[in-house]
Amino acid sequence: MSPSITDEVAQRPPTVLVFDSGVGGLSVCQSILSLCLGVRIVYVADNASFPYGTKSEDYLRSRITTVLSGQCEQYQPDMLVIACNTASTLVLSDLREMLSIPVVGVVPAIKPAAETTQTGVIGLLATSATVQRHYTDQLVADFAAHCDVIRVGSSKLVEIAELYLRGDEVSEVELTDILADFFCETLSRPVDKIVLGCTHFPLLKTQLKQCAPYPIEWIDSGSAIAKRIKGLFDSAGLTLDASIAPMHRVRFTGAAVANDHFNHSLRLLGFQNFEIEERIL
Q1: Cα dihedral across residues 253, 256, 261, 266: positive or negative
Q2: Contact criterion met (CB below 8 Å) for 88 and 107
Q3: Residue 2: is its pLDDT beyond 60?
Q4: Is 79 exposed, middle or buried (0-12, 13-18, 19+ CB in 10 A)?
Q5: CA-CA distance, 268 to 129, in Å (whole number)?
Q6: Which residue from 218, 30, 196 is spatially nearest to 124, judged by alpha carbons?
Q7: Which end of the chain is more exposed for a tag (fewer CB within 10 A), N or C?
């Protein structure tokens, strides 16, 4: 580790490295920043390999562990959050063996949706790969066997969220079409909870609510992850100083998606001070 990085690690506030294939994990950062005042975020978006849904599992395992081992060595975070369902299912156990810090993954919030549904019908809105994965089948079997679970897979919604943070308009027609299966007249009972099973999707929660024909509770994993991070800080005796505004880093493995609108979006998500770097790998 270079002297400059050594000095930075010694002086910086408690740090969480958050990883995703794109900007979706910024929704998780928003939850962390709102609960853990004074925390510093190093956000790493592997957009050079985006989207993950088109890549083989072997490639992704190698790619993700390579990227994160280098970033963790450089920044020496106090904990790591894998804010990506695909990455969590593929490399979480490998990373926990490889690293000496806590590693927190993300899974669709099927359990809380199933525990609180009043109609017995819940929706899962995720990527096409996530809705088909065995671990999703297992989550449903373990926690929602008593429910009807309507699964909708959409890779298009990931693209919409990526572009939205850069200032593109969101088409209500497109969103309504994506959500249509949740509101079919053929359903015997109405869906009352929809799980946002991709970290990109909470970035569009306002627009999704507007496209639903009746009020729905939209459930994501951001709050649960933030509470887990706060608990880890407390148990490790790491003190957060709410009076400071840390300098966050937003890093892209490829070309940065940053523009003025993206910078404004970061501030709305809780990033008061930040530096953006691109083509880090």
Answers
A1: positive
A2: yes
A3: no
A4: buried
A5: 30
A6: 196
A7: N
Annotated active-site residue in 29, 36, 72, 198: 198
Task: Work out the pLDDT band at 9, boundaries 50, 70, 90.
Answer: low
pLDDT greater than 50 at residue 189: yes
Which tens digit of pLDDT belongs to each residue from 155-175? 999 999 999 999 999 999 999
198 in catalytic set: yes
Q: Please give the angle made by the CA atoms of 163, 53 and 225, to the nearest 5 degrees.
A: 75
Give the Cα-Cα-Cα angle 63, 128, 22 (nearest 5 degrees).
40
Backbone dihedral region for residue 250 (phi beyond 0: left; psi -120 to 50: alpha; all else: beta): beta
Of the listed 29, 84, 147, 211, which one is catalytic?
84
Instruction: Determine the pLDDT at residue 168.
Output: 95
pLDDT in tens, 56-103: 999 999 999 999 999 999 999 999 999 998 899 899 999 999 999 999
How many whole angstroms separate alpha carbon 61 and alpha carbon 221?
23
